[in-house]
Design goal:
The protein contains two helices and three strands, in the order αβββα. By secondary structure, the chain is mainly alpha-helical. The chain has a domain of 58 residues. Strands 1-2-3 form a three-stranded antiparallel sheet, with no helix packed on it. A hairpin with a 6-residue loop joins strand 1 and strand 2. The longest helix has 68 residues. The termini are far apart. The mean pLDDT is 89.
Length: 158
C-alpha cells in the first residue's frame, strides 16, 4: 500500500502536470489567435485600401461622365447644332430644338447622354422614355401679367 507521502507527491505532480499542460495549451492558442488577428487586420487593411482606390476610380468615372454629358454638343458625333441644345442634367441631359438657330424649330428631341462600358438608363430615365414614346407630353403656358392674369384668376407669385 502506498504511503501518504507518495500519494501527496503523486497528487502534487498530477496537479503540476495539469497546470503545466494548461499553460502550454493556453500559450499555443494565444499565439494562434495573434497570428489569425494579424492576418485578419492585414486583409482588412488591404480591403480598405482597395475600397478607397475603387471609390476614387468611381468618382473619376462619374465626373468624367458628367463632363462628357455637358460637352456632348461640341463632340464630332453630335448630330445637331450645339446652339440648339439645352442642358438639363437631371433627369434627362438635353432638350434639342433642331432648326431653332434659323428661327424655325422642326422638332423637339429629348436626349440622354451615356458614356462608359456599362452605361444603362436609370429607372427614371426608362420611365421618361416610355412616357415620351406613349405621347404623354404636353405644352403648358404660365403667363404672368398684371394683378390678374387673362383668365381673371389671381396673380401667381413667381
Amino acid at each position: 500500500m502506498p504511503t501518504p507521502a507518495i500519494i501527496t507527491i503523486a497528487a502534487v505532480a498530477t496537479i503540476l502536470g495539469i497546470l503545466l499542460a494548461y499553460y502550454i495549451v493556453k500559450i499555443i492558442f494565444e499565439q494562434r489567435f495573434r497570428q489569425w488577428q494579424q492576418i485578419a487586420e492585414q486583409k482588412w487593411a488591404e480591403e480598405r485600401t482597395k475600397a478607397a482606390r475603387d471609390a476614387v476610380n468611381q468618382s473619376r468615372a462619374v465626373l468624367g461622365g458628367k463632363f462628357t454629358e455637358q460637352m456632348a454638343p461640341f463632340l464630332p458625333d453630335f448630330r445637331y447644332d450645339p446652339t440648339e441644345a439645352r442642358f438639363i442634367g437631371s433627369p434627362i441631359d438635353f432638350i434639342v430644338f433642331p432648326g431653332l438657330a434659323q428661327g424655325d424649330p422642326k422638332e423637339i428631341v429629348i436626349m440622354e447622354i451615356k458614356s462608359g462600358k456599362n452605361a444603362q438608363l436609370t429607372n427614371s430615365e426608362r420611365k421618361i422614355r416610355q412616357l415620351i414614346e406613349e405621347g404623354m407630353v404636353r405644352w403648358e403656358l404660365l403667363q404672368k401679367s398684371g394683378p390678374e392674369n387673362a383668365s381673371g384668376a389671381p396673380k401667381l407669385p413667381l
